[in-house]
Amino acid sequence: MKTSPKVVEKKYLLPFIIITSLFALWGFANDITNPMVAAFKTVMEISNAKAALIQFAFYGGYATMALPAAIFVKRFSYKKGILLGLILYAIGALMFYPAAKYEVFGFFLISLYVLTFGLAFLETTANPYIISMGDEETSTRRLNLAQSFNPIGSLMGMFVASNVILVALNSDKRDAAGSLIFPNLEPAQKAIIRTHDLAVISNPYVMLGLVVIVMFVIIALTKMPVRANANHEVKTLEIIGRLLKKPVYREGVIAQMFYVAAQIMCWTFIIQYAENLGIVKSTAQKYNIIAMAIFLSSRFISTFLMKYINSKKLLLFFAIGGMLTITGTIFIQGMGGLYCLIATSAFMSLMFPTIYGIALYGIGDDATIGAAGLVMAIVGGALMPPLQGAIIDMGTIAGMPAVNASFILPFICFVVVAIFAYRTIKK
């Protein structure tokens, strides 16, 4: 009788644990950054669209560096790719200190851009590395298991954003009527508050940079298994050509781009959605934490369900669920709409690793370059949020709060994911 292959074999357990810890590390960076869109909008006195350039810089770094990272990893090794990624991550995080000193919004954008160079290396390396640690039959479940630790880091990032940063921002103080005080202050008073608040924002990033340096030392001193992926003559264009001939991979990259866009929009603008209901930023961020807790729980549940239900069918069911909750977010004005937005996280939980696993299934040695395409798809998180921010800046649309109407963009994204899931089932 044939035994089912293990999700994680004993010989891979230690490297699996070490690499999985990196998933939490970039989850922290992702979700301490999302609330900063609202924070910078107030303290720097800029529009929602301009503040959303934070997401453009953050996720634009993925698009810029994913392919170079894949070529580097393909030519050298997974371990060297991870170490280089950690160096870039630390540099970007530590750059927040001078950015706060100079009080220039563009400097913060550059810092995030460099930071995500490192994240691009980590994600391009870690995802295919996890997939390679065992039988291909269990690869999607294994990646879902590793990705389950990503929202743990995200929860930590949200907690720090809510309880360390947002709650300490003097620019977010309100009067008895609930209106912001900061916009009506004298320039000198604003300057004092701005200096204080930018320091509050930058300090956790500096601490994060120090943690990343510690992680660099641990991995540098740990003996990691050498995967047979080093190839000093990487024929990148030839590999890309082969990948583009595979419909499932090609459509998977598109689906991933739209999924990431939906995720970032739902988690970035939950604060603006709540603010429209009269909720302050620090309290609104607590709703984001609830959403992430739901996301985390659903990730573990969906990983378990994959043992009994085909991952492609689950992806379709969850995409439809996301469409339904976002419909409620758009048309239900009040707390009911906010609850629908929070519930959307339950349906987003399995999407990234499942799309990733389906797209890379069966592509063999091309997986490293293939992973780069899927990481570059994270650029969806750079392109869509500024557009949603511009819609929110309109105030109202057809008698509806523009912040509600803006969630038509995540709805469209879930439609694309549902089409991808349906087509892979048919294939």
Can you walk me through this structure?
By secondary structure, the chain is mostly helical. It has a single domain, classed as Growth Hormone, Chain: A (Up-down Bundle), CATH 1.20.1250. Helices cover 75% and strands 1% of the residues. It is built from 21 helices and 2 strands. A two-stranded antiparallel sheet has the order 1-2. β1 (396-397) and β2 form a beta hairpin. The longest helix is centred in the middle third of the chain and has 35 residues, at 187-221. The radius of gyration is 21 Å and the shape is globular.
Average pLDDT, rounded to a whole number, is: 85
* CATH architecture identity: Up-down Bundle
> What order do the strands of the largest sheet run in, or round the barrel if closed?
1-2
As for the number of domains, it is 1
CATH superfamily: MFS general substrate transporter like domains
What does the overall shape look like? globular
